[in-house]
């Protein structure tokens, strides 16, 4: 392609407004597009040619055949789009796709009781196990609803869901049968404190197609125990660790995200905990680590929590992730999944998602349980739902619709201004995700993990 | 160019 053709090319194509890029210390360039979800890396040698393809008048104007290859790659993955493309319309259309009625995500609070009393917990434990009439209602509802579903995902939640495994068993069997009859794909995940996650219980859950778990460890031994003790007192660390280590012997597919919550009181402890986690789980990539800052979410201890300031949160998340990868751990797929189209939208903002309490109350958000506008109605024993659609509309249309900054943001296809509608309601501020706030660090983390995975593959294939 | 996650793969998810 000569210079004239290069000019012609630039008249036909433009860089996508949904691109983000990260230059890293190793000289490589990482590109990301939030509309296609594509992520690609380029060597230092390719870097200038890529930038020149994307931005006219860029670094260098050396054109050869390998440029053609780069150009076609940039087009294929959406980094370059046709000049006439209306990308804002694309984002709008993508937003509307979330209204698809053939998928459903239910967050089920099978009990609202918990055997832990974590010092930062936002729950108030007013109710215990899911009532029988609510269980009957869920079974009746899904019997009918599954007929028009292509996919059903259940999040088992609480409280501590493993206090009531018999309820999970019963509902799972019922949902799986309904999906089997309709041909819908069924999947489930669970947030558990891990105290009752014995090997036997774990394999029961795998049989019920619960394949993704989130279990929290906030540091080693005493550090964890002072933050996440038993109701009535007592440590929990050793029991959880013994349980998790026993699961390594299970020769089946699963994903366990070991979540580490940090605040100003355990920053150094978390850093020291990473090699401990590596010694336990570094040899099993089914165990992944997920670092999250503690926030004031409405718990009774909120005023006493040593939460990090926003700048510290932003720095520490990515510092811990890089330290974990360097140590030989695998970081959670939550990070790269958040970068998928609509991947950062909270279930509270998705029209086809509901939280159902143990007493049958319907919610959108699983945090603001006492907030009136978050109580949408109730499920009856016959499977009918009483639902306030004005409240549903409030949670699902309070994102980018009225926020010009969100409308013009590179991350719009991923979050649609709806990463946390509760945060926007409570503060009036944009609820940008940690990944978006530090997109260069997030892309670097994903790149580092990819490099580590490839190095491991080479080792294992030799 | 090394593709860490392709557009097509993303569309599937």
UniProtKB/TrEMBL annotation, chain A:
What's the protein here called? Radical SAM/SPASM domain-containing protein
List residues of the Radical SAM core domain: 109-252
**UniProt xrefs under InterPro entries:** 4Fe4S-binding_SPASM_dom, Aldolase_TIM, MoaA_NifB_PqqE_Fe-S-bd_CS, rSAM, rSAM_sf
**Pfam families from the UniProt entry:** Radical_SAM
What is the species listed in this Swiss-Prot or TrEMBL entry? Answer: Paenibacillus vini
Keyword vocabulary terms for this entry:
4Fe-4S, Iron, Iron-sulfur, Metal-binding, S-adenosyl-L-methionine
| CDD domains linked | Radical_SAM (cd01335)
Per its UniProt record, the required cofactor names are: [4Fe-4S] cluster
């Amino acid at each position: 392609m000569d210079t004239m053709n290069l000019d012609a090319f630039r008249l036909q194509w433009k860089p996508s407004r949904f691109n983000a890029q990260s230059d890293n210390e190793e000289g490589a360039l990482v590109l990301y597009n939030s509309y296609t979800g594509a992520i690609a890396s380029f060597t230092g040698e390719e870097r200038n040619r890529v930038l020149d393809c994307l931005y006219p008048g860029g670094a260098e104007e050396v054109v050869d055949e390998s440029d053609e290859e780069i150009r076609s790659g940039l087009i294929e993955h959406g980094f370059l789009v046709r000049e006439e493309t209306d990308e804002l319309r694309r984002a709008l259309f993508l937003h509307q796709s979330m209204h698809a009625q053939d998928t459903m995500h239910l967050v089920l609070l099978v009990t609202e009781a918990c055997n832990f009393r974590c010092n930062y917990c936002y729950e108030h434990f007013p109710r215990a196990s899911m009532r029988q009439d609510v269980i009957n209602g869920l079974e009746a509802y899904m019997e009918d609803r599954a007929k028009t579903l292509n996919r059903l995902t259940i999040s088992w939640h609480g409280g501590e869901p493993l206090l009531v495994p018999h309820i999970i068993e019963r509902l799972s069997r019922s949902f799986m049968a309904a999906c089997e009859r309709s041909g819908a794909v069924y999947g489930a995940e669970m947030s558990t404190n891990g105290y009752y996650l014995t090997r036997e219980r774990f394999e029961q859950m795998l049989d019920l197609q619960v394949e993704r778990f989130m279990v929290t460890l906030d540091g080693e031994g005493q550090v964890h125990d002072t933050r996440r003790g038993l109701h009535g007192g007592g440590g929990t660390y050793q029991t959880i660790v013994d349980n998790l280590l026993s699961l390594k012997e299970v020769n089946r597919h699963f994903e366990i995200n070991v979540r580490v919550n940090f605040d100003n009181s355990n920053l150094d402890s978390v850093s020291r905990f990473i090699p401990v986690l590596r010694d336990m789980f570094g040899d099993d990539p089914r165990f992944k680590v997920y670092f999250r800052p503690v926030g004031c979410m409405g718990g009774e201890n909120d005023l006493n929590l040593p939460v990090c300031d926003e700048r510290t949160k932003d720095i520490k998340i990515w510092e811990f992730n890089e330290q974990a990868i360097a140590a030989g751990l695998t970081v959670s797929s939550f990070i790269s999944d958040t970068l998928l189209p609509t991947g950062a939208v909270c279930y509270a903002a998705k029209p086809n998602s509901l939280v159902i309490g143990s007493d049958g109350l319907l919610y959108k958000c699983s945090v603001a349980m006492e907030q009136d506008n978050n109580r949408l109605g109730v499920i009856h024993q016959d499977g009918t739902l009483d639902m306030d659609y004005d409240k549903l509309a409030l949670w699902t249309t309070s994102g980018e619709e009225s926020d010009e900054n969100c409308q013009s943001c590179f991350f719009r296809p991923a979050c649609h201004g709806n990463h946390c509608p509760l945060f926007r309601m409570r503060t009036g501020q944009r609820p940008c995700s940690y990944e978006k706030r530090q997109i260069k660090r997030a892309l670097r983390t994903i790149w580092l993990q990819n490099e580590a995975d490839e190095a491991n593959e080479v080792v294992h294939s030799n | 160019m090394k593709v860490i996650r392709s557009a097509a793969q993303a569309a599937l998810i």
